[in-house]
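Observation: inputs received (chain + S-adenosylmethionine).
Thought: call the complex predictor directly.
Action: predict_structure
Action Input:
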Amino acid sequence: MSHGNTQRRTYPRNGWEWYFANYRPLYPESVIDRLARIVGRPCGRVVDIGCGTGQLSIPLARRGFRVVGVDRWRGLILEAERLAGQMVTDVLERPTFVVGVAEALADVLDGPADAVIFSKSFHWTKRDAALDAAKAILSPSGPVIVINSKMRQDEWMRVAMAVAREFTPPSRPFTVDPDQIPESAASLLRKMGSRRVVERCLCNMVASLTIDEVVRYWLAMPDCSMDRLGVRADTFIDRLRDTLLRVNKDGVFDVHESLEILSVRVGYESDTKGGAP
Ligand SMILES: C[S@@+](CC[C@H](N)C(=O)[O-])C[C@H]1O[C@@H](n2cnc3c(N)ncnc32)[C@H](O)[C@@H]1O
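Observation:
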């Protein structure tokens, strides 16, 4: 449980990937339970696409799944390897990580996968190509799982975003709202398997962050990195803190996140004649 310690801490001049690894939370056990049920056992290899620094790969591996994380960003993969080395003591159980893109998985993975998961990454990919690539490596009736996240845009988040925009105009949106993409992830997944086997579940989560955790969360974004901020980093941090404290004097900020977990079993044909549920 966080507490509202509003004293300024120091913020190392590290890259955003370091902040991403250290301050972006791992998935909670309740979500891993759900994923474990969808993936099922026995299961060979689970591929975590857009793995970042292993937020999902690491807890899945600790559950005994053999996980390969794929991400296009080398700096994140290096941090993922470092974090997994710290958090998964048994070398044989450690997830492995590889630099690669969702749209060309076969270029970086040898052998098939028994499950493919897009962990908060599907909306950043070229989705049709990414699904084709996933299908090409999946073993028969293996699940494709898409995890989408939606955060409630509370006032503190809006003002923090405005400060960040002022200091480092984003080269792309800070977030992409999966609901704003014309064809939904669910409808794309339906095209892969039969309609009846697309399953959807929601997990609602609330986390309380201290003001320092909020600042570090912002420094974990490429557009707000220490590198981009350069000599203005301290001014940015002070402005962000002052602005946040004006919204919420106690220095505790709640994050309301809703996770949508969609899954489909590719090649599962049992109800193709049965029509929609
Ligand atoms: C929002 S982060 C999610 C990180 C982590 N999976 C999580 O759930 O917290 C999205 C990740 O997708 C990666 N990514 C975006 N497009 C990609 C692509 N086409 N192929 C592989 N990775 C991609 C980004 O580099 C980033 O690490």
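Thought: report the result.
Final Answer: The longest helix spans residues 233-247. Residues 24, 49-52, 55-56, 70-73, 76, 101-103, 119-121, 124-125 surround S-adenosylmethionine (CB under 6 Å).
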